[in-house]
Design goal:
Blueprint: E1 22-27, E2 37-38, E3 41-42, H1 48-57, E4 60-65, H2 70-82, E5 87-91, H3 144-167, E6 174-183, H4 192-208, E7 215-220, H5 223-234, E8 245-248, H6 254-262, E9 266-269, H7 277-285, E10 291-293, H8 309-349, E11 392-393, E12 403-404, H9 413-424, H10 428-443
Parallel strand pairs: 1-4, 4-5, 5-6, 6-7, 7-8, 8-9, 9-10, 11-12
Antiparallel strand pairs: 2-3
The structure holds zinc ion.
GO molecular function: 3'-5'-DNA exonuclease activity; metal ion binding
Biased composition (Low complexity): 341-351
Family: Belongs to the metallo-dependent hydrolases superfamily. TatD-type hydrolase family.
Amino acid sequence: MAEPLPLGANGAPAAPTYTPRYIDIGINLADPIFRGRYHGKSRHPDDLAAVVGRAVEVGCTKLIVTGSSFKSSRDALKLAQEFPGTVFSTAGVHPCSSSIFSPSHHKHHDESQSEGEGDAEPEHTPACDPDPTKPIPDGDGVDLARSERIIADLATLIHDARQPSLSSSSPPHLVAFGEFGLDYDRLHYCSREVQLHSFAAQLALAASLSPQLPLFLHSRAAHDDFVRLLKEAFGPRLERLEKGGVVHSFTGTVAEMQELAELGLYIGVNGCSFKTEENCAVVKEIGLSRVMLETDGPWCEVRPSHEGWKYLVEFEVKAKEARLAAEAEAAKAAAAAATDAAADASDSGTATPGGTEKPRRHRKWRNPPPQQPQPRGRNQKKEPDVPERYKTVKKEKWEEGAMVKGRNEPCTIDRIAKIVAGIKGVSVEEVCEAAWANTVKVFGVDS
Ligand SMILES: [Zn+2]
C-alpha cells in the first residue's frame, strides 16, 4: 500500500511541494542477506535488484555500499559496476573484521568465503548491537608479516577499483576508504590491540594514497583512541586529510560529536542514533552542515522501542492532519464549482431562445459544502501509527515486492530524515537538502 505522499502533494492546491532526495551513505548491500541467504542457507530468491528499486522509488537515488572486509569490499565494487551512478562502494577492513591481523587467524585474509555446504559461515556484516559477554583479550599481538600483506593487498584492491574513474570521465565506483575504525563495544570479534593496529595501519595507507580518498569511519566506545590515531595520521587538526570523512552510525556524546565536527568530520546518523533520550539529545546538536543520513541496513532499523520513534509518529500525525485539511479544502472548492455549474445551467435554461442573455446572477453559496467523507467502517483494521510504504513479510513467507521483516533496507531512509527533522525542529526538506549537499561535497557521488 502506498504511503501518503509528502505534504503538499495529493493535488492540494496551495501547499508547497517538495520531493525528498536521499543518499544512503552506509548500506551493507554486499551482505548475502540481500541475496536471500541467511547464515549460509538460502531462504528466498535473490531480491537485491528489488531492494535497489525500492530505494530509488522513494527518492534514495544514491547508495554508498559499505565494504567492511576484502570480500564485501569486492562485492560492493561489483554492485557499483552493476548499478553505475546509483551504487557506489567503499573498501576497508572493519574493526569487527580485523582479526585477520591476528596471529591466531588461520584463513587467508582475502579468501573468498564460499557459502557452499560444509564451509565456513557466510560473511554477514556485523550487526550493530554490542556484545560485552565474550571479549577477546589483548596479549595475542599482531602478525606483522601478515599485516604487511593485508595492507599491500588492500592498496592493490583500491588502486584497481579507482583506475577507471581516474583515467576517464565515467562515474566513480569506489568513493571512500573504509569502513574502518575502532569498536570497543564488540571486542568479541577482535581484541582491542588488534583493532588499534588495524586502524593505524589502514590510516597510514589512507594518508599515502594519491589522491587521497574520503574516509568512512566507525567509532564505538573508543573516542579517545579513535581521535588520537586520526591525528597521528593526518595532523593535530587533520590538516593532511585532503578529502574529509564521515564518522557513521554515531552514538557518542555531544562533546565527542563536537570534537569530530571541529576536526571537519561529518556525522552519519541511522536508527542506532535514536535509541535513547541521550542519543536524541546528541542528534539535536549536530549542525545541518555536518549531518549525513544512512540506514546501515540490514541492521539498525528504527524500532517502536527507540526514543526516536515518537518523532516519526508525530510527523505522521501532522502529515495526516495536513492531508485531511487539504482534502477538506479541495472538497469545498469542488462543491463551490459544482454549485456554480448548477447555477450556470439554470441560468442558461432561462435564456430567451435567440434573444439576449439575461444578466447572470451573482455567484454565491446556495448550499452548505458537502460533508466530509465518512470515517471507515469500525471493523476495519486499525491503521499503524507509522504507515509502511511497502508490505513486510517474514523471510519464510517471502513474496515479490515485499520487504523482509527484520532486514532493514535503504527505502526506509525517509524515517531517518523525518526523525532528525523532528528532533531538531526543522523541516524534512532542510534535513534532506543539507545531507545531500554534504554527501555530494565529500564523496562526489553526483557525477
Ligand atoms: Zn559501522
